[in-house]
Amino acid sequence: MPELFNSSFFIEGSLIAHYFFIGLILLVAASFVAGYIDAIAGGAGLILIPAFILTGLPPQLALGQEKLVSTIGTIAAIKNFIKNKSVIWSVVPAGLISALVGAYVGARVILLLPAEALSLVIVALLPVGLLAATIKGRVKTTAQSAGNASFLAVFLVCFTVGFYDGFFGPGTGSLFIIALTVINKFGLLQASATSKIFNFSSNIGAFVAFAIAGKMAYLIGIPMIVASLLGNHIGSLHAIRTNGEIIRKVLFVSVGVMMITLLVKYFTGF
């Protein structure tokens, strides 16, 4: 028996457990940060997917795990935004339907077209959209400024962003916020709150697909989900308490990371 405890097998097993524990702590921390950022400006996948891959998860499992963590985690932000009456309910039906349809169409088209082309378009247009959102977006805590938002405009915006979500994906929440602010004239707080509903809808399809394919690690996902829920809760409350002003700052960081991610993907093929 003493020989067993002194064996390389035992030592290697202890090291594996040690690094697994450290990796899990890092993933839980990443889930909290991603949830906080996602609740404010979108972009959980920009943090979670690289974190999952860097800690050794296979790419498909990393994608599935991101949907498991962020889709459930965003419920906390949705609850707070609904409680604060920041969601523009009059446009939700149009956005839900078009986001679902757009994501489905995007997923089908990706089989025919190279994703690199869309990556370059997004990288080129994001600074313009971000600047427009910063200059034109007026933060309000009520829905009055968006009460007359065009049903058709919301439908087209959500179909387009939903298409992107199905076609490519990273930073969908940020794109929803920018589009709703610039095109639909929503305040940043309203755009962030309403975009959570639309993004949640577009995520459901991918969530179900990965779950059916068995690409989710539910057991290790439990602490990540808890951390994501906490991050979403704190992030959404922060956005509400600052009257949405923090959204501008976090949006710049989130979109900046997305642009770097898209450029790296384009030039490296990763």
Automatic annotation (TrEMBL):
Pfam families: TauE. It is a multi-pass membrane protein. Belongs to the 4-toluene sulfonate uptake permease (TSUP) (TC 2.A.102) family. PANTHER family: MEMBRANE TRANSPORTER PROTEIN YFCA-RELATED (PTHR30269:SF0), TRANSMEMBRANE PROTEIN YFCA (PTHR30269). Keywords: Cell membrane, Membrane, Transmembrane, Transmembrane helix, Transport. The keyword Transmembrane helix applies. It is found in: Cell membrane. This is Probable membrane transporter protein. The chain crosses the membrane at residues 9-33, 87-111, 117-135, 147-167, 204-226, 246-267. It comes from Erwinia aeris. The keyword Cell inner membrane does not apply. It comes from the Bacteria.
